[in-house]
């Protein structure tokens, strides 16, 4: 099921792995593999990518970071084709993402001699970027009866869906709130009326999709290959300024 009707679909620059992710999901549709298994596989891919960064194998690091991005899309696709959405998978995915993001940035800091305060601020900026993208995208999906496991505001612990345990949902949701709560509150504080505004145009959503994790990992991969490791963390720190640009455009025009 498509997340958006045809007239509101946009070119998602962070979702380049979706075609391969669909192939993987369809190949696993009639197997015992679950979306959780695919999530675990992207965690492993991300960890291998981090090890490659530390060892200086930048081409391999790029490969595993991109593979991680593809598998990150494949777990959701598999949940859709098996018709087994779950909050366990939704929050495990998010918790794994932020932990891997932190480890990726720490590994880049380690190999690039960048000041640690730049690493810290760049990581916070990276997460703020991703939060804004998800915020606007979930609002857009909810306007058109999108998937039910993603909500504009994650305030209350959801009720477990059939096939999952409430205890797992409770634990992962608590971790999600701990790790993402401050970013959600910051974006909400900056643009609390976004859900009451007009539908964002496709061109703007495409621009904002550069904040998506898939595109962020692609930028990291390319910069590693080009031996620009010293510029990765400063780039994401500076690019965070676009958060305020996009919010300003939304408030003024939409």
Task: Break the fold down into its secondary structure elements and pairings.
Elements: H1 18-28, H2 35-55, H3 58-81, H4 87-112, H5 116-143, H6 166-190, H7 202-208, H8 213-225, H9 229-239, H10 241-253
Helix pairs in contact: 1-3, 2-3, 2-4, 3-8, 4-5, 4-6, 4-9, 5-6, 5-9
Write up this protein.
It is a single chain. With 254 residues, the chain is an all-alpha fold. The chain has one domain (7-253): Up-down Bundle (Four Helix Bundle (Hemerythrin (Met), subunit A)). Helix content is 70%, strand content 0%. It has ten helices and no strands. Helix 2 runs antiparallel to helix 3, helix 3 packs antiparallel against helix 8 (213-225) and helix 4 packs across helix 9 (229-239). The chain is globular, with a radius of gyration of 18 Å.
Quick recap:
This protein has helices at residues 18-28, 35-55, 58-81, 87-112, 116-143, 166-190, 202-208, 213-225, 229-239, 241-253.
Annotation keywords:
single chain, 254 residues, mainly alpha, Four Helix Bundle (Hemerythrin (Met), subunit A), 10 helices
Largest sheet: none
Spans of at least 5 consecutive residues whose pLDDT stays below 50 are none
Total domain modules: 1
Number of strands: 0
Distance between the termini: 27 Å
Shape: globular
- Strand-and-helix sequence, N→C? HHHHHHHHHH
CATH homologous superfamily placement: CDP-alcohol phosphotransferase transmembrane (TM) domain
Rg to the nearest angstrom?
18 Å
- Output the CATH class name: Mainly Alpha
Mean pLDDT: 92
How much strand content do the residues show?
under 5%
Q: Which architecture would the CATH scheme give at its second level?
A: Up-down Bundle
């Amino acid at each position: 099921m498509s997340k958006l009707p045809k007239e509101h679909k946009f070119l998602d620059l962070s979702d380049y792995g979706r075609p391969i992710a669909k192939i993987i999901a369809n190949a696993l549709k009639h197997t015992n593999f679950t979306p959780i298994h695919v999530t675990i596989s992207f965690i492993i891919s991300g960890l291998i990518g981090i090890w490659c960064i530390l060892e200086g194998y930048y081409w391999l690091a790029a490969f595993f970071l991109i593979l991680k991005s593809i598998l990150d899309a494949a777990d959701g696709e598999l949940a859709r084709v098996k018709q087994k959405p779950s909050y366990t998978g939704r929050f495990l995915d998010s918790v794994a993402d932020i932990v891997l993001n932190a480890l990726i940035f720490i590994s880049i800091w380690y190999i690039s001699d960048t000041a640690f305060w730049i690493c810290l601020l760049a990581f916070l900026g990276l997460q703020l970027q991703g939060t804004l993208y998800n915020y606007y995208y979930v609002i857009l999906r909810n306007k058109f009866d999108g998937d039910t496991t993603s909500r504009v505001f994650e305030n209350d612990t959801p009720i477990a869906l059939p096939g999952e345990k409430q205890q797992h949902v409770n634990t992962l949701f608590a971790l999600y709130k701990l790790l993402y709560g401050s970013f959600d509150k910051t974006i909400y504080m900056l643009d609390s009326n976004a859900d009451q505004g007009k539908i964002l145009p496709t061109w703007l959503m495409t621009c904002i999709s550069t904040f998506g994790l898939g595109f962020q990992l692609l930028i990291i991969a390319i910069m590693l290959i080009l031996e620009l490791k010293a510029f990765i963390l400063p780039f994401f720190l500076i690019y965070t300024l676009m958060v305020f640009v996009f919010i300003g455009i939304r408030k003024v025009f939409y």
